[in-house]
């Protein structure tokens, strides 16, 4: 993912790279023009020299413009390119002093073509054409090179350092953008999960309230009407009592259907064991990891809030295994005991340090289980897999 600023910076970098690559053509063209106008040699000699200059132009085009990918991937190829460049420049300088105008381009190309410390060796090698110039005084030439070489190395090192800093800054910006996107995704996931949890809790609360008030009241009305019906003999009053009793029973059935409708989706029309088994089956198909589900003890009907808590615990534990554990096998056990229900989820994955990890899902699960006076135990260590055990008390379904 790239930002607009990053795209603009990359565009500017490409333009500068193109300018550096085209600079040698400007200097070569200028040197050739000066040579053609001022050199006293005959036209035959001039054509040979200009042909060598054209060969240098073609050499640079083949490596720099025709195959720009070589500049980043083929270090030895670029060493050969630079050696050929120095050879061409040395021959041209030997033929005419005018081509000394091209030699500064060799300093620039040393830092463009050669990586790391070989670039500084290239700067030193770029002095060869100066030394090949005919009629040059050795002492003055060496003095000039002693000044020009360190200066060129210093400038090239500074430019390379600035380019490296720009690249590091761009990479840091890219990482920040990626982190921001990941944080946004996690925030959206947390918000969605919190919303789902809130909706589920509110539905459970409404179901509990309806069960404890309206359903219980209608149950009492039905009981009272049945008692009155036994005391009243056949006749108009008994018919009215029977009609009221039937209406109360119908209302009670509708209320119970409404309570069932408020229970979470996987538990509609299913026992807790079936709902957890379905969650395991769905997870196994999603992650393609072997997973077993076992029920021990005698299943018994429990309060819907207990069912919801155990089911959500299974879903959260399996989701964590799928996201983090890299497990090869998962075993899920639902145990019905005398006064508690225990859910165990074990995997053979990478494990983790339980003292340093605590995500939102696990925290929310602990809070939910604690609201039922239950407990959540997590046993894990790096490389030893993970075992999550959820224990909740049995809260029986009221009539």
Q: Report the count of strand segments.
A: 5
The largest beta-sheet arranges its strands as 1-2-3-5-4
Ends apart, CA distance between termini: 59 Å
Poorly predicted segments:
none
- Biggest sheet statistics: 5 strands, mixed
Structural class: alpha+beta
Radius of gyration: 42 Å
Helical fraction equals: 55-70%
Give the rounded overall mean pLDDT: 78
Coarse shape: rod-shaped
Number of helices: 12
Beta content: 5-15%
Order of helices and strands: HHHHHHHHHHEHEEHEE
Feature tags:
kinase activity, rod-shaped, Heat Shock Protein 90, 12 helices, Sig_transdc_His_kin-like_C, metal-binding, 399 residues, 69% helix, transmembrane helix, alpha+beta, single chain, 5 strands
Structural features, described:
This protein is an alpha+beta fold and 399 residues long. Among the domains are: 4-136, no CATH class; 269-399, Heat Shock Protein 90 (2-Layer Sandwich), CATH 3.30.565. It is 69% helix and 9% strand. It has helices at residues 4-38, 43-65, 70-73, 75-95, 103-113, 118-125, 128-132, 138-231, 236-261, 272-287, 304-325, 360-371; strands spanning 291-296, 330-336, 340-347, 375-380, 386-393. The protein has a 5-stranded mixed beta sheet with strand order 1-2-3-5-4, with helices on one face. Strand 4 (375-380) and strand 5 (386-393) form a beta hairpin. The protein is rod-shaped and about 145 Å long. The two termini are 59 Å apart.
